[in-house]
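S.,

Sequence below, as promised.
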Amino acid sequence: PSAPSAPSALAENRRPRPLRLDLENQRKQARSLLKAARAGDARALRRLAAVHPRIHSDSSAAAARLRWSLHHAQLVIARERGFKSWAKLKAHIEADNVSVRGALVGAVNRALETDTDQPLFVDPLARSLAGKKGRALHEELRSTTWPPYTAGPPPEQSILTRYYDDALQAAVSELSLTQVVLLGGGMDARAFRLRWPAKLVFFEVDDGAVFEHKEPVLRRRRAKPACDRRIVRANFPSAWTAKLLAAGFDARRAAAFLIPTWLVYFDAATVDRLFRELREIACAGSWLGVDFFSADTIESPFMQPFFAKLAALGYPACRFGVRHPETFLAEQGWHAECVVLGGPEASYGRWRYGYTPRSTPDRGIPRNYLAVARRMADKGKAR
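The prediction came back faster than expected:
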């Protein structure tokens, strides 16, 4: 949105809209502006008068200082950022959070894969879910991060999607599961594009801002899920399990849980907390699909320029990785089998980098571990 014309005092404070804004920072700036105006600061009063000339002209200087309120200051901040109202500024920031950005980029990757001559999967909703904003974010990543991408999709993302498509569907079929929980799936459309048993309940758990973008697009496309799809608005790592249970999840029945690549952005304590909570609602026999960065990938000097470029674009730091994923998951109550992204089991002829077996020492070798696991019964606890 563009701001209406304003007197010179506003013009001198107007700056090009930053690519990304922080809501709490904008609130602090509004409070600081109000405080300065009430203290009689001339520049602060000019900024307020530029947006609220009526209050300024109808009052003496002393009276005007007392009449300014926080919502007046917030409107000034919004106008100076190029928005017509504080509500529009707030909506822009909330829609531009990390969860939404990552979700939109993922949708672009799936759209690009769908358009290839021999796609590993077909996602007919991906292009609509990505939208213009997703394509702009993807182009930003394409031009500034390593490795440089050509016109096609990044192979690692396509491989991950196909691998867990197959693994998830196999688990539901072979284990006769009737519940699937997708944690932080973003613009994922598995509930729509894959075949599911008629009575399957598919829970999507993610940030509310993700669904604010996703659901209107699905309605416009008149998309019909192939199962009983239920959305659960929860911001990780806040208490998501209570909201999942409120949506109808039955913790007494085995379920399939899928966690796409985002654990890497949390610290170890937060990841441990999430797995403790998962352990409480996943009964014995449940299935889990999750992938991990190797700890040595995160610590590798070779990867630091890549991580620095991501940080410069406003993406969170990569923080969590494991060296022994089977051991980590066993400590969390899961019996796991793991493969390496790009290995014989997870390549599909798309992996364009070298493959180093796990038997080779891990230090300095970038790896992603793809795990599938079954929930073990807790000792002394019947489930």
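Residues 1-19 have pLDDT under 50 and may be disordered.

Coffee later?
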